[in-house]
Amino acid sequence: MDMNIRIAGEAGQGVLTTGGLLVQSFASLGLNVAATRSYMSRIRGGLNWYDVRIGDRPLFGPAPGADLLVALTDLARDTLRAEVAPGGLILHNGAGAAEGVVAIDLDAVAKQVGGNKLYSSTVAAGAVFGLLGYGPRVIEGLLEEQFAKKGGEVVLANRNCVKEGAKLAAGKSGRPAAPKPDGRRRRVYDGATAIGLSAAVSGVKFATAYPMTPATATFAYLASVADEYGIVVEQAEDEIAAVNMVCGATYAGAAAMTMTSGGGFALMVEGLSLAGMMELPIVILVAQRPGPATGLPTRTAQQDLLFALRAGHGEFARAIFTPGSIRQCYDLTRRALETAHKYQTPVLLLTDQFLQDMEQSTDTLETTAQPINRHLAANAGEDYVRYAVTESGVSPRAVPGGRALVVCDSDEHTAEGHITEDLEAHVEQQDKRMRKLKAMTAEALAPERYGPQDAETLLLTWGSTYGPAREAVDLLGERGAAVAMVHFPQLWPMNTEAAAEAIGSARRIVSVEGNQTGQLATLLRSLGVLDECELLTNYTGLPFTGTEITERISP
């Protein structure tokens, strides 16, 4: 059993505070949680909402509507009323109770009990717990943790507001059925945090970015743990400076990364090619949002796959990882850093707004530092040759400042690193750089299959479509349909044999993508992995839901 609670109101009204408090409270109570956000590109006003989905089984994506709508404004109530499920309930901030609507003046209660309208978010959280029949004690404990630094009076005011909200809502009729918690406290992470934590644990010592939604959340997380993990975090003046700083840091031997979205990545492309020529292990997080140009800055999309694959002038090796879950965000960030340093080449990590912001209960992520192997030539001496021609294409990499003279250049160069226009030397170095792809392909992650082996219908997914597609496979299976899915956590380089084996010979193949043109399908066709397939696309700016895929995939 699962249900979705939607908190909706204006930016600056406490939507995030209420939603965040509920997420942590439900997880502490022993419920599975999957939370998503929809917000407008403005600081105040508009209509934003925070969906908190809870269940007695693991949840992997958003729900299509709301079982309980917490409407903090009349606009939220009137606009989103149609999305409340049959038998659902609206908790309205104000007067005007009606059938299916519970009215509590949250602002008035906050002023009366806490002395300040700002406490209305905790009143709302308490009211939700009261409506669902959960005791508010869990929230009270979290409030003590959250506001301890602000003093006992603030903690007490918040606790009283939670209690009053729960008390006022507990006696209301029409309470929706709620999942039963198992009492086992769960940990909740969002994608941005999982990526940042993995980078910190993996030994990233320099992180820089020009802030750009939705990548900024990862940048902010790294800043918050900079002292704990010994990370230098620098806000660059623009994306060009950011990528060049990362090139400099990796040249000096540090593990480093930058993060941006599509428009910022466009500015980084020259630096990407610079890293390709200088064979620097830079990692770039590209958190996608709808384009072209500025597009929809706070919405989600999967529109930059082919751009990431072909970005940069000239030809050079790269890897592209596309996590689809919180766990994959954590694991693949480390994999990206390891790949970059092992093969001395740029690596891109593609996420999107949906995955960056999605909160999901999952296994506890390791926080103890376990730095990756940077594959540095520690004992390089006076005979060191930076771009020595090797069978693998990977040359010894020394850090400047030791006995070895490290010569690098953005022009074509000899094995020693000196500029050259010798065409034979150019071919030799170009072949050396591209030979890395052979071993990178052999080590490429195979696609992951979920569902029955004899499925007649197969869903192809990459990145954040993993969760909704997985739920669709389960929903369709419950209806007796033989449906499976194949998810690509790495899209370049691709082991085409493993990809073809994972896809198999399903009668019907459907590529589920958050873009209009089917970029995954285009890539698979170009590699000879796929002939033709159906496209199931969503370019609305909102993520897929399992229900949506189920309805659209059914004959």
Tally of DSSP helical segments: 19
What portion of the residues fall into strands of 2 or more residues?
Answer: 15-25%
* Total DSSP E strands: 20
What radius of gyration results from the CA coordinates? 25 Å
Oligomer: single chain
Terminal-residue CA separation: 26 Å
Q: If classified by CATH, what would the architecture of the largest domain be?
A: 3-Layer(aba) Sandwich
Structural class: alpha/beta
Average pLDDT confidence is 94
How many structural units, i.e. domains? 4
State the CATH topology of the largest domain.
Pyruvate-ferredoxin Oxidoreductase, domain 3
Assign the CATH class of the largest domain. Alpha Beta
What are the segments in which pLDDT stays under 50 over at least 5 consecutive residues?
Answer: none
Main sheet attributes: strand count, strand direction, barrel closure: 8 strands, mixed
What's the shape? globular
Portion of residues within helices: 25-40%
CATH superfamily annotation of the largest domain:
Pyruvate-ferredoxin oxidoreductase, PFOR, domain III
Strand order of the largest sheet: 6-5-4-1-3-2-14-7
Short description:
Helix content is 39%, strand content 20%.
Q: How would you sum up this structure, described in words?
A:
The protein is an alpha/beta fold and 555 residues long. The chain folds into four domains: 2-185, Pyruvate-ferredoxin oxidoreductase, PFOR, domain III (Pyruvate-ferredoxin Oxidoreductase, domain 3), CATH 3.40.920; 191-362, Rossmann fold (3-Layer(aba) Sandwich); 376-443, no CATH class; 448-553, Rossmann fold (3-Layer(aba) Sandwich), CATH 3.40.50. It has helices at residues 15-29, 74-80, 106-114, 120-132, 137-147, 152-170, 191-201, 216-224, 226-229, 239-251, 262-278, 305-310, 326-343, 353-357, 423-442, 466-478, 496-503, 519-526, 546-553; strands at 2-11, 32-38, 45-55, 66-71, 84-93, 101-104, 187-190, 206-209, 232-235, 256-260, 283-288, 319-321, 347-352, 359-362, 448-450, 457-462, 483-488, 490-492, 508-513, 534-537. The strands form three sheets. An eight-stranded mixed beta sheet has the order 6-5-4-1-3-2-14-7, sandwiched between helices. The protein has a seven-stranded mixed beta sheet with strand order 9-8-10-11-13-12-18, sandwiched between helices. α7 (191-201) crosses α8 (216-224).
